[in-house]
Amino acid sequence: xxxxxxxxxxxxxxxxxxxxxxxxxxxxxxxxxxxxxxxxxxxxxxxxxxxxxxxxxxxxxxxxxxxxxxxxxxxxxxxxxxxxxxxxxxxxxxxxxxxxxxxxxxxxxxxxxxxxxxxxxxxxxxxxxxxxxxxxxxxxxxxxxxxxxxxxxxxxxxxxxxxxxxxx
Length: 168
Prior knowledge:
6 helices
């Protein structure tokens, strides 16, 4: 799923990075996402950073980080939508439904694309409840039940190992 300005807010899952520096965390995400550095965005507690990200995204994340005192920065992948380029029109619910319907109709000939799209849609956490996912659930694309151990309602920062204590 992507951050799409103008779309309804969605539940978002996050985790603390094991990296000590912002640069290391950004580089790790860039490598995992197989993208360029300019597609990896961040915002610091004071609202700085965020070059290339939508102003409303920066504002939302700045408000979020204020509520999480143990978080120093937020790092995310900020890919631009390629919908216009691939489909020839701006992203819209009806066109997304048309695209997925066409995949269903062609599933025997385009099985790999169909399977990838269905897996992507059904393996997202059920709390990510976008209009496209709602419409596809009506069509029978039901969410895969993900293990509850993958998600925590509140996360604590990784704890530092305790120092050994001397007896005496």
